Structure to design on (109 residues):
């Protein structure tokens, strides 16, 4: 197996609180995406909603994936004032959240 050099993925699973208006969710997603332009170690951002039919989502409805250049880059991201400010708006709108950071590993066959 071969671990990706330097790349670290930051995965956030979220369920917004019931009654959160769709336009508010859209604004929050756009705010999350804009962090890429403010936080240098954050190299990419993608998101989506759960489309699985397996019913193993445990209530999580949204997935947010950010790509960083290193674990240190995630540390810088977490402490960055733009992230702190955004988190203070984003997190209160969530009923539940789960965050996992990992280094992608390719399995060589």
């Amino acid at each position: 197996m071969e671990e990706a050099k330097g790349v670290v993925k930051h995965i956030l699973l979220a369920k917004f609180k019931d009654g959160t208006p769709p336009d508010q969710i859209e604004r929050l997603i756009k705010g999350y995406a804009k962090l890429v332009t403010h936080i240098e170690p954050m190299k990419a951002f993608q998101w989506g909603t759960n489309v699985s039919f397996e019913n193993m989502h445990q209530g999580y409805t949204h997935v947010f994936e950010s790509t960083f250049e290193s674990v240190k880059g995630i540390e810088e991201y977490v402490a960055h004032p733009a992230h702190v400010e955004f988190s203070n708006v984003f997190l209160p709108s969530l009923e539940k959240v789960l965050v996992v950071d990992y280094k992608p590993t390719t399995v060589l066959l």
Remarks:
- The longest strand covers residues 8-16.
- Residues 22-38 form the longest helix (17 residues).
- The beta strands are 2-3, 8-16, 42-49, 62-68, 94-102, 105-106.
- Residues 35 and 81 are 10 Å apart (CA to CA).
